[in-house]
């Protein structure tokens, strides 16, 4: 008689149910980013974990998601927080926040089925994300690895911080109030469909350029105009952002324009010194030349030598240096006219001009009135000494030995040459005033 063998199950029904729950928790915990927190009293999975497990159970983060049967387009927006320009190297440094969006038709849910959860936060390593970088710069940019927000309608939103360093063709002719136009080409080598962020939600025409949302706290640069357009190539695409920035800084008025004004004023004031003070005039011009040379050396250290055009400020200082060189030569000639012992009279034509309307226009009439009485007084003193003299042989240096007519003539000749030197100073004062005014107008345009 065969004995009956009874099979005793090792796992009961309750234990089997418990094992299934553990397996489910293990599966959800193995999904990247899933939270396996449970209620220890009931063993129930939280709603957020259940939603996460349902959305990313069969998700492959290495494959670009699809929307409406085609690879999902990517919306790209830029919010600039700070920018700076390196003049010597021709680089534009941009600190910004990027607003990157895309949709996945397989990552949608009904909030009513999941305790009205409308969005969840994910780590960037859990999901697919576009490889956004600067296409034409010397730095690919550093994207911050922050969270990605997924909404119930399948929208992914990623807002990383980035630093881009792009080359810019600088035009320094109007420095330090120059306006530069630079371009940022931001995109991906593997995406062909990138849209402006303002158009990604279906607002506006994607073919038209849109302005960039910008907030620049820089004390030197201000964005005056910006636009964005999508450029599609054979196997990649990018957004081309065009930035027009204006340099505005009050410090340049103190270190450039104020010294320039003082240099011009001192250079013109030297023409009003008396003709016999030619040494002081030459000293003033020499000091101004040294100051301008120091400024030109400062500009050479501050500005790129290979710029397209020389800045007008540098042209102003270099031209002023040339003017001061000519002014120094003129002052040497004026000093010679005023101090040399002349034996010949000035031409009658010049004498008539100096004592006529030209002399009046050059303010020489007061100069004549102030010197002529001294000459008459000297002549009267000489005649008085001649009349009261007793013995001409008593003193070899007696003024009686000097012919008073010759003394008067020599003084008048010298006076006319001094008057001519003064007229030369006044004429070149007008010429240099017009020259500096013309130079300032040209450099201010």
UniProtKB/TrEMBL annotation:
GO molecular function per UniProt: extracellular ligand-gated monoatomic ion channel activity; transmembrane signaling receptor activity
GO CC, alphabetical: membrane
Every Neurotransmitter-gated ion-channel transmembrane domain range: 256-375
Domain of life: Eukaryota
Transmembrane spans: 254-273, 282-300, 312-338, 417-442
Annotated signal sequence range: 1-36
Entry-linked InterPro entries: Neur_chan_lig-bd, Neur_chan_lig-bd_sf, Neur_channel, Neuro-gated_channel_TM_sf, Neuro_actylchol_rec, Neurotrans-gated_channel_TM
Keywords: Membrane, Signal, Transmembrane, Transmembrane helix
Pfam family, any one: Neur_chan_LBD
Membrane topology: Multi-pass membrane protein
Domain Neurotransmitter-gated ion-channel ligand-binding as annotated: residue spans: 50-248
Localization (cell): Membrane
PANTHER family xrefs: NEUROTRANSMITTER GATED ION CHANNEL (PTHR18945)
Protein name per UniProt: Neurotransmitter-gated ion-channel ligand-binding domain-containing protein
Organism: Drosophila ananassae
Annotated gene: Dana\GF20667
């Amino acid at each position: 008689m065969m004995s009956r063998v009874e099979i005793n199950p090792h796992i009961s029904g309750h234990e089997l149910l418990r094992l299934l729950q553990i397996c489910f928790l293990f599966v959800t915990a193995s999904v990247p980013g899933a939270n396996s927190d449970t209620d220890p009293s009931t063993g129930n999975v939280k709603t957020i974990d259940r939603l996460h497990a349902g959305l990313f159970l069969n998700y492959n983060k290495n494959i670009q998601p699809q929307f409406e049967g085609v690879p999902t387009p990517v919306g790209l927006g830029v919010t600039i927080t700070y920018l700076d320009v390196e003049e010597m190297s021709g680089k534009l440094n941009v600190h910004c926040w990027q607003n990157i969006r895309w949709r996945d038709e397989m990552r949608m849910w009904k909030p009513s089925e999941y305790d009205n959860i409308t969005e969840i936060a994910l780590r960037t390593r859990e999901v697919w994300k576009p490889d956004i970088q600067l296409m034409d710069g010397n730095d690919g940019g550093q994207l911050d690895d922050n969270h990605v927000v997924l909404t119930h309608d399948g929208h992914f939103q990623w807002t990383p911080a980035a630093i881009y360093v792009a080359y810019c063709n600088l035009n320094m002719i109007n420095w330090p109030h120059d306006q530069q136009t630079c371009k940022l080409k931001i995109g991906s080598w593997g995406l062909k469909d990138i849209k402006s962020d303002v158009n990604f939600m279906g607002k506006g025409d994607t073919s038209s350029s849109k302005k960039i949302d910008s907030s620049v706290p820089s004390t030197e640069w201000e964005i005056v105009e910006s636009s964005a357009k999508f450029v599609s190539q054979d196997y990649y695409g990018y957004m081309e952002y065009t930035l027009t920035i204006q340099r505005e800084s009050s410090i340049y008025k103190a270190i450039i324009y104020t010294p320039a004004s003082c240099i011009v004023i001192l250079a013109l004031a030297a023409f009003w010194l008396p003709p016999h003070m030619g040494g002081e005039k030459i000293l003033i011009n020499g000091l101004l030349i040294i100051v301008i040379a120091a400024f030109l050396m400062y500009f050479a250290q501050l500005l790129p030598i290979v710029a397209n055009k020389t800045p007008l400020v540098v042209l102003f200082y270099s031209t002023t240096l040339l003017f001061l060189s000519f002014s120094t030569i003129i002052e040497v000639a004026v000093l010679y006219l005023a101090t040399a012992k002349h034996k010949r009279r000035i031409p009658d034509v010049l004498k008539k001009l100096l004592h006529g309307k030209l002399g009046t226009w050059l303010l020489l009439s007061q100069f004549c009135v102030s010197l002529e009485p001294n000459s008459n007084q000297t002549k009267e003193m000489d005649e008085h000494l001649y009349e009261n003299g007793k013995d001409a042989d008593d003193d070899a240096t007696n003024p009686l030995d000097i012919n008073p007519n010759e003394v008067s003539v020599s003084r008048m000749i010298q006076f006319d040459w001094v008057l001519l030197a003064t007229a030369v100073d006044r004429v070149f004062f007008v010429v240099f005033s017009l020259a500096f005014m013309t130079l300032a107008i040209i450099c201010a345009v």
